[in-house]
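In the design runs reported in the main text, the only information available to the sequence generator was the tokenized backbone. The following block is the verbatim input for one such run; it is reproduced so that readers can re-run the procedure and compare outputs position by position.
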């Protein structure tokens, strides 16, 4: 089946929600206000990562097998590429197979889902369909995930001649607020400061025969085991979706709602909640147009789950939202 490039970009970004995929869930607050900012401030994560970084060795080659959905090589990444904190130590190695430029930009700039349409519209069609194999290495064996983002950014500039800018656009928004001030739903809690919480993702591949059993998928309360990562978890009924995370700022939690609820507009955090939170919610997915849900598929809608499980609601408003826009990009030649 062939998809138009613009529709394809949303399929690619939706894959980012899968654990270990390139994710659209941003952990930085996106500016949204009544007055457009003159220039967005430097995100805290960039400053904390130490500014400009580069790989010591890198290879970029186009994957000529075609997209995975047309029988090409399956996509593979040696680290969880989302904008969350979950990471897998690789000793400084970075590997990606058959990933399009769109996904690489999402990783390098921590692009949240609501920016997807604008970002894709500023890219040529090949940036959504042509896959690339990237093998890179840094001599820093203790490199962090955010440092690898900055290295990927430098690689995109060097090999793809990528030029981007951020601009504030006035758009319809959803402000996410508490249903009752000071009251959280049963599926939302401040992250306990004394609770063990690892951001190390599980190893790739089949575990060795003598390896200890993996930890359970969830901790008491139904929250995911791994912290700093958005998890698509096992549901309790057909046609349901169950999503959650631990030790995540509310701005990052809220940034997932646009995609999870198919809201069609950015969602911004106006809860006033500070610090990091654990959350989990389950709701029934809307069946595709013309398809009836089976009788056994029962459950709350996304809006109902938001209210009853998290204690949150959506308020329509207009405001300014920062979007990443590509000014220039070139198809790279195969280089080492």
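Verbatim output:
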């Amino acid at each position: 089946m062939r998809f138009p490039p613009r529709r394809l970009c949303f399929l690619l970004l939706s894959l980012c929600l899968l654990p270990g995929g390139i994710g659209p869930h941003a952990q930085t607050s996106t500016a949204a206000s009544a007055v457009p900012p003159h220039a967005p401030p430097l995100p805290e994560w960039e400053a904390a990562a130490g500014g400009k970084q580069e790989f010591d060795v890198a290879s970029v080659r186009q994957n000529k097998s075609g997209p995975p959905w047309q029988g090409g090589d399956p996509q593979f990444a040696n680290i969880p590429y989302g904008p969350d904190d979950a990471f897998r130590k690789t000793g400084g190695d970075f590997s990606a197979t058959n990933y399009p430029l769109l996904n690489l930009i999402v990783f390098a700039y921590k692009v949240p889902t609501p920016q997807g349409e604008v970002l894709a519209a500023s890219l040529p069609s090949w940036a959504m369909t042509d896959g690339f194999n990237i093998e890179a290495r840094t001599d820093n064996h203790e490199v962090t995930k955010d440092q690898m983002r900055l290295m990927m950014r430098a690689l995109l500039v060097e090999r793809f001649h990528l030029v981007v800018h951020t601009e504030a656009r006035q758009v319809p928004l959803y402000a996410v607020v508490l249903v009752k001030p000071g009251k959280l739903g049963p599926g939302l809690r401040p992250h306990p400061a004394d609770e063990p919480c690892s951001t190390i993702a599980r190893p790739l591949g089949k575990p060795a025969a003598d390896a200890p059993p993996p930890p359970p998928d969830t901790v008491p309360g139904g929250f995911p085991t791994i912290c700093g990562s958005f998890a698509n978890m096992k549901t309790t009924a057909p046609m349901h979706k169950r999503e959650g995370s631990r030790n995540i700022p509310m701005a990052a939690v809220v940034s997932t709602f646009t995609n999870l609820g198919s809201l069609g507009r950015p969602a911004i955090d106006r809860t006033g909640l500070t610090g990091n939170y654990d959350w989990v919610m389950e709701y029934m997915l809307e069946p595709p147009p013309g398809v009836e849900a089976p009788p056994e598929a029962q459950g709350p809608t996304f809006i109902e789950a938001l209210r009853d499980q998290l204690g949150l609601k959506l308020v329509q408003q207009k405001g300014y939202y920062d979007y990443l826009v590509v000014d220039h990009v070139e198809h790279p030649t195969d280089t080492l």
